[in-house]
Each structure stands twice: as C-alpha cells, then as structure tokens.
Amino acid sequence: MSALPASAPVSAPAHTGAPTSAELLDFVRRTAADPALVASLPLDPEGRTWIRLDGPGGSEAWLIGWPPGTGTGWHDHGGSYGAFATAAGRLTEDSLAARLPTEGWKTLELADGVDRSRQLSAVQGRAFGPHHVHEVLNESADTHAVSVHAYFPPLPLIRRYSRTGPVLRLEQVELPGEW
Question: Based on CB atoms within 10 Å of each CB, which residue in 87, 101, 116, 160 is the most buried?
Fold first, then answer.
C-alpha cells in the first residue's frame, strides 16, 4: 500500500465556533512567549513533563518539557488538526508530506521525497492538518526544550508508528487517559 498525496491543513468552518488552525497557531505562539508560564513547568532531567492548559474554543492544549535527547516517536493525532510552538530551546520536527490511510494497513512503504524536517527555535511554531504524521525531537545533548501544543477537536486517539528506512509500521493506538 502506498501513501496518498499530501493535503493542505484544514481550518474549521468559521460558523462552528471551533478554532481555526490559524487561531491555534496564534494561541501556541502567544503562550510560548509567556516567560512566567514557561518557567512554571517543572523540568525532569530524565522524562518529559507537562501541564494541561485551557486552549481556545474547547481545544486541548499542553505545555511540555523535553529533556535533552528525548522525542515523541512517529505518531499522528487521530484526525485532530493543531499547532505547536517552541517556548525554550530548540526542537526538530520530522514529518511526512503524504496523507496516510487511517485504517486497513499495518505496514506501509513510503515513496521517495515525502520526508520533511524543520528546526523550531523559541516562539517559532507551525500549524498542521488532521492527517499530519510526525515526530518531535529535542536533539540537544545538554539543554531542555519547552513547547506549547493545541489540538481540535481534543485528541480522540493517537496512532504510534515505528519506522525503518521507508517502511512505516502501525504499532499502537492510544486512547485518552493512556498518555
């Protein structure tokens, strides 16, 4: 099975009252620029830490601390769209410029040219659509990173993947309360 062509991020229709991708991006950038909030996050030298935030329009939002050398692994957001911004340090986002089928497969061979990578320093952020697959990494050997994330609708599930070269494998589906 092969990946489908990438699709552009989708914003919620204005009449629903749901936040748009642009509003989520504005929220995470403004929140990432709040030094008192960022400083309130307890940092653990060995594991990620987080605080749940009140996101705009009923969105799910988090302030997350990343010790040196940690990351999320490959995952998606179960059909939610969202945004994230780095508040301190620097994060790397590796993503796929391809829309993956959400059901009916266990392993998938990715086509050449679908990999994307970007570095996000303090207050830099990005929005993404409901079919976004990525991993986020703090590649620093000695510096914590902190980021702000927001998702709408609130995450219904997270699909976790492993990757070996061009082969992506669905490993686990997590439901709320399991993360």
Answer: 87
Closest CA to 125 of 93, 94, 98, 100: 93
User: How many of the other CB atoms lie within 10 Å of CB of 136?
Assistant: 22
The yes-or-no verdict on residue 14 having pLDDT over 70 is: no
Residues in contact with 26: Cβ distance below 8 Å, sequence separation at least 6, in sequence order: none
Domains, in order of start, for the chain: 15-171 (2.60.120.10)
Separation CA 94–CA 109 (nearest Å): 17
Q: Tell me the Ramachandran region of residue 45: left when phi exceeds 0, alpha when psi lies from -120 to 50, beta otherwise.
A: alpha
153 prior amide bond cis, ω within 30: yes
pLDDT-derived band at 2 (thresholds 50, 70, 90) equals very low
List, for residues 50-96, the tens digit of each pLDDT value.
999 999 999 999 999 999 999 999 999 999 999 999 999 999 999 99
131 within 8 A of 100, measured Cβ to Cβ: yes
Residue whose token pair is 């936040």: 19
- CA-CA distance, 139 to 173, in Å (whole number)? 26
d(CA 89, CA 178): 27
